Amino acid sequence: MARATEHREPAIKFLRMKPGHGEVLLAEGDPSVLEDEERLVEEFRRQLDHGMWAAAPTVDPDTGRREAQLVREYAEIPDQADRVIFFPRAAGG
Amino acid sequence: MVLALLALGLVATALLLSVLLHAGARGKARRAQSRHRRRGRPGFEPGDPGRERRAEQRARELLRSCVNDEEWAMYRDLGFISVPGRLAGTRALDGEPSRPERRGSEPPYAYLIYPHKPIVAYVPQTRRLLSEYCVEFPDLTGAISDTRLPDSDDVLAKWMAVTGDESRLLRNANMHLPGRQVDPTRIRRDLWRLAEWERQRGGPDSAELSSR
């Protein structure tokens, strides 16, 4: 399951927001290494199965503005993303 | 007769005291058992007053590393973040066509993001309040009582959802008229504070940049 492009930083971190803790590190690895990628894909799916949303903080290359991209599949993670943050899905309050 | 009543009263008092003592002892035992069970539960951390503070500190660092510099400064100084709405090509939240060029470079509408409060949509140009989007991010995985994210994580979750997939967030939120949960007077005061903050940071040009 290859990511969008090959031009990216070698490592990516998966973080998760946790009540009472702040963020915790779930996994990290180099997606270009097969074993790392399999581990990352598995963790990504596990978090979504738990009902998490996943977002990758990004920087617009044209404007330099920071924003986020919500991703529903591992393959949607932007190639320039160095981390994916998992957080509980939104619910009407 | 009086003697009999006195004896009856003494017996009743003794019985009542006995019942109360037994009840107290049972309650004490239950509390001790409960404490024992909690201590044995994985993840239980006895009273740590710094835990929430440390969690919030970590959350602030994460927020700072994700949002734009002026958004971070806004949150640090004012306690909320203003994010422009970007549902371009559709109808804006006030029912008017959503055209960024409609009035200069101001976005047609924007959101105020507060920690653990509804997201408030408003028109930056007129400061008219449009709606409240009540949304929470409860972590229900393996948690019974502690489901609430630290304040700054809640703000970051909203910021990522607004900038990442605004439509999806709005679909999951409950929309209400302004004033349902957040006092409109407070919102108007915060919008005034925001305008003053932007003015002090460098005048109208800075204000425009900050509201984008």
Strand order of the largest sheet of chain A: 2-1-5-3-4
Number of helices, where a helix is a run of at least 4 consecutive DSSP H or I residues of chain B: 7
Query: Helix count of chain A?
Result: 1
Work out the helicity level of chain A: 10-25%
Most extensive interface between two protein chains, with residue counts:
A-B, 27 and 43 residues
Q: Largest sheet of chain A, if any?
A: 5 strands, mixed
Distance between the termini of chain A: 36 Å
Give the terminus-to-terminus CA distance of chain B. Answer: 91 Å
Mean pLDDT of chain A: 90
Q: What CATH architecture of chain A would you give?
A: Beta Barrel
Q: What fraction strand of chain A?
A: 35-45%
Mean pLDDT of chain B: 80
Low-confidence runs of at least 5 consecutive residues of chain A: none
Major sheet summary line of chain B: 5 strands, antiparallel
The order of strands across the largest sheet of chain B is 1-2-3-4-5
Write the layout of secondary structure elements.
The complex is a heterodimer of chains A (93) and B (212).
Chain A: E1 12-18, E2 22-29, H1 34-49, E3 52-59, E4 66-71, E5 83-88, E6 91-92
Parallel strand pairs in A: 1-5
Antiparallel strand pairs in A: 1-2, 3-4, 3-5
Chain B: H1 2-40, H2 51-66, H3 69-78, E1 81-84, E2 110-113, E3 119-123, E4 128-136, H4 151-164, H5 166-172, E5 174-176, H6 184-200, H7 203-211
Antiparallel strand pairs in B: 1-2, 2-3, 3-4, 4-5
Helix pairs in contact in B: 2-4, 4-5, 6-7
